[in-house]
Structure formats: structure tokens, C-alpha cells
Amino acid sequence: GQQVMQIPQYQHVQEGEDFTTYCNSSTTLSNIQWYKQRPGGHPVFLIQLVKSGEVKKQKRLTFQFGEAKKNSSLHITATQTTDVGTYFCAGRQGGSEKLVFGKGTKLTVNP
Amino acid sequence: NAGVTQTPKFQVLKTGQSMTLQCAQDMNHEYMSWYRQDPGMGLRLIHYSVGAGITDQGEVPNGYNVSRSTTEDFPLRLLSAAPSQTSVYFCASSYSMVGPTEAFFGQGTRLTVV
């Protein structure tokens, strides 16, 4: 079945450092989504990428979708303590109704 | 607009007991799903529904039943609770499978089976 792998599982950074999490799928995805979950909270949608090679930016966050639509990345520039949380990627295989999540990357930021 | 509402927020069950986790959305979303979240395991899909009267299994369906009699409600039933079902359960909904498919999550139900 469809699998979505995400690395690293944990990342500790000093405030101001950059952070990147990577997502890889065993199959081609129709689209990929990114979510953020604050400690004790629920996942909240950040963005969706649909096109091959697509790059989107939200302030200090940059999202990329690979040319083969099998991988994606989220990069945060100059992390802040408000960036703390777990970041998940989620994707649907073309034609599938299931939204499958990666295991997430837990980000902690030391002030 | 309440979004996705889950009840209860917390529950403790004894092994063998049954219960229903409630999920309701007021956004007229077609697609609804249940996930469980365990440490280090991310969000795993239990069951999902693409519309009233239609349900299907996700990655970890064993021990759970669902039904979708209305567009708004998607309850999750634990038939005979086991300690392995101790987890945080999230219900999610989205408008459809095409177009904007952002998933909206409920606040979660923290379930402990003793």
C-alpha cells in the first residue's frame, strides 16, 4: 500500500537556525499537504502542493514538491520559538481516496 | 461554524468495554476520516468515508467499526476495547477528493484502556 516516509523524526535547533524536513512516497502522489501540530493540539493545515516541481512560500516557510511527485520538503528559515511543534506531510496516491500521513518531524527550538 | 467537533475529549475504558467516539462537522464536507496518533507512529488512518452511506478501511481498521448515515456525523465504535487501543483519536473532514482538499481536524479524543 501507499507509504509516506518522513525524516528526520526529531530535530533540535537553536533559535535562528534553519530547519528542513523531508517527505518521500513509495508511489506518485496526486498532491501533497503539510500540517503543523502544536504540543497538545490537533494538526492544522499549512499548504497543499499539486504541480510537479512546485515551490510555495509562506513567510519563512518554503515548500517544494519534487519533479516526480514522489518527494517534498519543508524548509524554515531562521527558526523562532513559535515554530515548535510536529510537522506532518500527507499525500494521496493518484486516484486513491486515502490521505496518508508521514510519521512527522518534531521540532524543538532552544531560545 | 463549529468546524469538526469530537466528543468526548477524554475517556477511560476497561478492557472489553465498548464505546462510541462521536464526530460531527457542519461544513457540508463529503470526506470524513478517523486517525489514531501514537508516539513515534504519526497519524494512522483507521476508516474513512467519501459520503453518506459509504465507508472504507484505512491502514489500521481492526477493532473499530464506522457508519455514515448522514453527511454531518461519522462515529467510531470500539467493539471490545483493548489496551493496544490506548491512543489519541482524531476525526478529520474535507470538502471533497478534488479541488481544495484541506483536512480540518477535531480537537481529539484521548482514550486510555486499562
The succession of helices and strands of chain B, N to C, reads EEEEEEEEEEE
- Major beta sheet summary of chain A: 6 strands, mixed
Largest sheet geometry of chain B: 7 strands, mixed
Silhouette of chain A: globular
* Alpha-carbon Rg of chain A, integer: 13 Å
User: In total, how many beta strands of chain A?
Assistant: 11
- Estimated share of beta-strand residues of chain A: over 45%
Structural class based on helices, strands and sheet pairing of chain B: mainly beta
Descriptive report:
Chain A has 111 residues and is an all-beta fold. In chain A, 0% of the residues lie in helices and 57% in strands. In chain A, the strands form 2 sheets. In chain A, strands 2, 4, 5, 9, 10 and 11 form a 6-stranded mixed beta sheet that branches. In chain A, strands 1-3-8-7-6 form a 5-stranded antiparallel beta sheet, with no helix packed on it. Chain A is globular. Chain B has 114 residues and is mostly beta strands. Helices cover 0% and strands 51% of the residues of chain B. Chain B contains no helices and 11 strands. In chain B, strands 2, 4, 5, 6, 9, 10 and 11 form a 7-stranded mixed beta sheet that branches. The model of chain B has no long low-confidence stretch (mean pLDDT 94). At the A-B interface, strand 4, strand 5, strand 9 and strand 10 of A face strand 4, strand 5, strand 9 and strand 10 of B.
